[in-house]
Structures are given as C-alpha cells and as structure tokens.
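Box 3.1 A note on notation
Throughout this textbook, protein chains are presented in two layers. The first layer is the amino acid sequence; the second is a token string describing backbone geometry. Keep the layers aligned when reading.
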Amino acid sequence: MVNMTAFSTQIDAKKSPRLRALLNPFSALLWHRSLVWELSKRDVLGRYRGASFGLLWALISPFLVLGVYTFAFGFVMKNKWPQVEGGQTHFSIILFVALIVHGLFSECLTRSPSLVVSQPNFVKKVIFPLQILPWPMLLSALFHAFMNLMVFMLLRLFMEGTIAWTIIFFPVVILPLAMLSLGVAWALAALGVYLRDIGQITGVMSTALLFMSSAMIPLSSVPASYRGWFELNPLTFIIDQAREVCLWQHMPDWQGLGIYAVIALAVMYAGYGWFASTQRGFADVL
C-alpha cells in the first residue's frame, strides 16, 4: 500500500507541471477575480462617465450605428442580401449581426498594443499581475457585444414579431472568438511594449478584417479567386455561424466550431506564452 501511494505521488508530481501550464492563462483570473471585476466595471463605466445618459449609451449607440448603416447601405446604395426577401431594412439587420462579431474582435485587436504601455506604474512601481490586463478588456468587449445583441433582438421582434429560438446558441458561437481574442491580446500587449508602431497597424487590420469577411457579402457571391482569402479571415466563420443562429434559425456547425475552438485555444496559449516570456523585459523598456 505504501509503495502504491508513493507511486501515485510521483505520477501527480509529474503531471502537476503540465497541469499548471494548462491552467496558467486562467489561474490569474481566478486568483485576482475581484480585481478583474473592478477593472472591468471601471472600463465600462469610464467610457460613459460624464455623459447625461450614462450607461444607457451602451444601448443607444447600437441603435444609432444601425440607423446609419440602414440609411447608407439600404436607402442610398440599395444593397440587398442575395436570396433573402425583405428589402433594404433586412440587409441592415444581417449586416448588424456581423458588426456585433467584428466589434468584439476589433476592440481587443486595437486596444491590446497599449494595454501595458499605458500602465507604466503597474510595471515599475507596484506589484501587479500584468497578465490579467487583457481580461477586463475582453469582458468589456463582451458586455458591449451582448448589449448590441439586445438591440438586435428588439429590432427583430419589432420588425418580424419573432426571435429565432436558436439565438440561445450565440454565446457558444462567440466563445471560440473570445478565446482567440484573448490570445491575440496577450501577444499584441507584449509586442506593443517593444514595437510601438504596432498600434497604428492594428487599426488598418481591423478595417481590412471587416471588408474581407462575409460581413457585407456572402461567401457564395465572392469570386472564386478571392474566396480563399475571405475564408482565412478568422471573422468569416463566426459571422456566418452567428447569422445561422440569430437569423436563419439553424443549429450551429458543431464540427466547425470544434475545429475553430482548438485553433483558438492554440492561439490563446501561444499568446500567453509569448507574454509570459517577454514580461521580464517590460520594466527595462518602459
């Protein structure tokens, strides 16, 4: 019995480093969850501090954005989604679903390079778990994404009197993109310390990802010679799946989501590994 206990202890000792490595991206969140929560609230509320309507702007802004896109693409350009009846107004709703997905990833992409650079005191003067910085940003982006989803549901209910029941799968569809965003955030936050120009590039990348995705045109309408580039866009698959569950009342592509989630996890761990390996040099640069 003693030998078996010793053997099991050795096995646990061998496994624990691997287990710790797997849990590292989440352990800081669990240990500092109160701090992450407070930073997330500050991020969300700080955006509307001093505004007359305060947090209500989280709901008002999507209505205004949707109105602009409806006017521009629906009534001026008279765009219509192929094989979908309902005219220009329906095109704006189809586009709005894509904007929810793009907005989530874009916020993480464009803000990440300045996460560490904008907080030099956290690096030099206090003991602060820098690895948690992407979490409040992601939670803030998720909050605004679900505010936009509420606006979509209200408009869909007003226009058609019904909401697709499959919309309950939207969080499942968006989860792999959240993991991917987290990995990109860790990587860019570290890279932004050493290469300040990266912040200028991410804005262009965000715009390119929007227009080279299925946000404004279905993949079936993209010329075959360019379709591969659209399919490589990490937003395209998630946008299509979001439309399946929010608009067409179809179940998501579980196999595709599984493959996407595996890739997103790989990016997340790679991004965290890069951040952890370069973190020691932050103080020297800042």
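Confidence is low (pLDDT under 50) at residues 1-14. The CA atoms of residues 59 and 123 lie 35 Å apart.
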